[in-house]
Amino acid sequence: MKIAISSDNHLDVNKVNISDALEFQAHWLNTNHLDYYLYAGDLFNDFSKTKAYFEQLQQLTTNTRIAYILGNHDMLNNLSFSEAEHSHFPSYIHNQFIDLPNSDWRIIGNNGWYDYSFSTYHDQLKKVQTWKNVYWLDSSIDQPISDQERMATVIAQVKYQLDLAKDNNKSVLFLTHFAPRQELLAAKPKEVNTPRRERFYQMVNAMMGSDRLGNLLEDSNIVRYVFYGHLHGIHPPLTRHGVTYLNQSVGVSNKRINEWQKDNLYDQWLTTTRVINLP
């Protein structure tokens, strides 16, 4: 079983021609005979565009099954909280699973979320929430519950899926967007050298993920690979208690930010897209 995984292509932010991107990715998937293409979130700043893109990509790759979850950017526009949690859009696998035929492997998808635990402000919830409402783009996402409640929902969903997989004697490949381990974050930049910059740095870290998810995945004893996004740049693989965490982010390149190691989206996508062969 041949599986490709990518995330954080940010096609709109990167000002990519959508028709060209579809043609390029479909051709590569078809030429390399991929059985599955998994995507770990952040394609557009608009769910309707993300949904349409994967529907078109699926039409162009008849021998490759497309499966995706959402990142925070995908949730910014044209998606309700209820739809994000309970929808049945084609190829969207949040809180769902795919059993790979003729094998003991199961893919489990969950968007994930964060609970501020990666930050020194983890016990100052109101302070972080106030900062988020002013500075962080996620404040525009439809969310009738707190971030801590949303993360608790994620944990309950994943625990249910893992218990089900264990009952079915499955080995798990887990797909999520946010970081499941704090040690996956990059080292603190040297530029964070003033109280103001330290505060900003800690506030951003609050929105990166939660160790609660990593603990749950590792304690299950059935998860083998975790593919995640959200953290741009280079993040080496990490293996803990039999679980290997792999970051698949393409990242952003524009006049203000350059997170790419290659000169264009297509070379960057080829470099960051991971292919694994499962027995």
From TrEMBL:
Residues 1-232 form the Calcineurin-like phosphoesterase domain. InterPro entries: Calcineurin-like_PHP (IPR004843), Metallo-depent_PP-like (IPR029052), Phosphoesterase_putative (IPR022302). It holds the Pfam family Metallophos. NCBIfam families: acc_ester (TIGR03729). This is Metallophosphoesterase. It comes from Limosilactobacillus vaginalis. The lineage of its organism: Bacteria, Bacillati, Bacillota, Bacilli, Lactobacillales.
